[in-house]
Specification:
Length: about 70
Amino acid sequence: MRPESLKWIEAAKVLAADPEAKVHCPKNEDEFLEVHDVPNPADPDQFERHLICPGCGATNILLMRKS
């Protein structure tokens, strides 16, 4: 697995647990990732957590369940 992929996995773990955590972009480590939660209209128990770097635009999306 590529080092960048491992960094995305670690960022996802941290931000899944705490969306307010400060995590640097796994691609360039230049900015902190922004977190945006998007509801899933088809399933109110799920939402997508978008992880976006405001600097380079790198993005990853997590499928989350409401607790």
